[in-house]
Design goal:
Blueprint lengths: L2 H14 L3 H19 L6 E5 L6 E10 L8 E3 H7 L8 E5 L5 H30 L5 E10 L2 E5 L4 E4 L15 E12 L2 E7 L3 H11 L1 H4 L3 E9 L3 E8 L6 H6 L4 H9 L4 E6 L4 H8 L7 E5 L4 E6 L4 H5 L4 H10 L2 E6 L5 H5 L11 H10 L25 E4 L12 E2 L5
Helix pairs in contact: 2-4, 5-8, 9-11
């Protein structure tokens, strides 16, 4: 190696952040193995590299003995003293054994080591960058579609959108820009693998945090969310400030905020409802846009019987049971829905007051929004938390393709009586 090689290492250290000492240590180990392989596999050698000039020296380590049994690893005391004065039996001396053509081998080895270290360092930088961004939202460009997987260009690296995390029926084309949720960051031998998602409920959470300043400021908070990607999402919100309408903040002026999210999700309908500490009111709100007459709860079993007008029964259940299913995920309660004419006196008699679960609500909500939780098909994105100290008397709103149109999907719903 020459001075140009040392200058190149200095440049790599500045640009890639790879310490020169790391490359030299790896190079020394590689050259030691190369010497043993090409010249003497029984020798015990060390390699030294001058980090200023690049000069390489190979030394054989020899044990000083009185009788030599293995000339490759041992040396007589008299011979050792000719090389280094003052040695004694049991010492180890270094004998220069640098081969004449070792420069060619060392140059090729150095090249391979530098290339490998640069790749390793770049992979480590990418992994560290995205490992800290797990459960966040990013914007990427569709690069290619291969074996049902979509590969996303994220700038410094490539992300994977597997079939299981794609929205059913969503069509993607090359060079299309889209927002994605960083589901998982894996560190594999081939480099970091970033698994992305378009179906995760967390994507909707992050979109609301981006579009609604009141959420990013902590004035309005998201309590729970239930999503069937590509079809419908229900999201429960509440306000810490009684002067701020949580639903209005999420919908925005003329529906601008929620419409931006709906457009990004390809027209997926979004129901925005108000969380309430009274589980009856919360369940009734969750079944929006249906009107609810009565909610009968069994606290121990976490089940609720919801009574609706007969003409609202199909609306409360929803197409293929979707509205009821999302409401159950959103509240964490099992919900049974019946029309008024189908409820028996015995069922009405089972209605007893609900005793709120004591908890530090604000600490619990903060913990829910800062901790990452695993998603399951039957659980809301956030766990259910009940509290005694938060009052919300807002209405629930359905925001669909056009939140300001007056239709069943977009209409503001009044909170039913508990």
């Amino acid at each position: 190696m020459d001075a140009d090689f040392i200058l190149a290492l200095n440049e790599i250290e500045r640009e890639k952040g790879i310490p020169k000492s790391v490359i030299f240590d790896a190079l020394k180990k590689a050259l030691e193995k190369s010497y043993e392989k090409n010249f003497n596999d029984k020798a015990n050698v060390i390699v030294e590299i001058d980090e200023e000039s690049g000069k390489i020296d190979v030394f054989s380590l020899l044990d000083v003995v009185e009788d030599v049994h293995d000339p490759v690893t041992e040396i007589l005391l008299d011979s050792a003293r000719n090389m280094q004065a003052g040695v004694k039996v049991g010492d180890v001396i270094r004998k220069p054994v640098t081969p004449k053509d070792f420069g060619r081998i060392s140059a090729q080895t150095a090249r391979n080591i530098v290339i490998q270290k640069i790749k390793d360092a770049e992979r480590e930088v990418v992994y560290n960058e995205f490992a800290d961004r797990e459960k966040e939202m990013i914007t990427g460009t569709v690069q290619r579609y291969e074996r049902n997987n979509v590969y996303i260009n994220m700038g410094r690296t490539e992300g994977l959108l597997p079939l299981s995390e794609q929205v059913p029926g969503e069509r993607v084309v090359a060079n299309q820009r889209m927002k994605l949720f960083i589901q998982e960051v894996r560190n594999s031998p081939k480099g970091p693998q970033i698994v992305l998602s378009r179906a995760n409920p967390g994507l909707v959470i992050r979109m609301f945090e981006t579009e609604v300043p009141e959420i990013s400021d902590g004035v309005v908070e998201i309590f729970s969310i239930a999503r069937e990607a590509g079809s419908r999402t229900k999201i429960a919100v509440f306000s810490r400030d009684e002067n701020v309408d949580p639903v209005g903040a999420c919908v925005g002026f003329k529906g601008a905020r929620v419409r931006a999210i709906v457009d990004e999700l390809g027209g997926e309908k979004i129901d925005i409802i108000v969380w309430d500490k009274d589980i009856r009111t919360f369940i009734a709100n969750a079944l929006s846009p249906s009107k609810v007459t009565r909610v009968i709860v069994k606290e121990k079993e976490k089940t609720a019987l919801v009574v609706v007008p007969d003409d609202q029964l199909s609306l409360a259940i929803g197409k293929e049971g979707q509205n009821a299913r999302l409401a159950a995920k959103l509240t964490g309660w099992k919900i049974d829905i019946k029309g008024e004419s189908f409820v028996t006196e015995e069922e009405l008699a089972e209605d007893v007051p609900v005793s709120p679960t004591p908890s530090d609500f604000f600490d619990a909500i903060h913990e829910l929004q800062t901790e990452s939780t695993d998603e399951t098909e039957n659980e809301p994105w956030f766990d259910e938390v009940q509290a005694e100290d938060l009052q919300t008397d807002e209405d629930s709103v359905t925001a669909a393709d056009d939140p300001i149109e007056e239709n069943a999907d977009n209409e503001t719903q009044e909170n039913p009586p508990a």
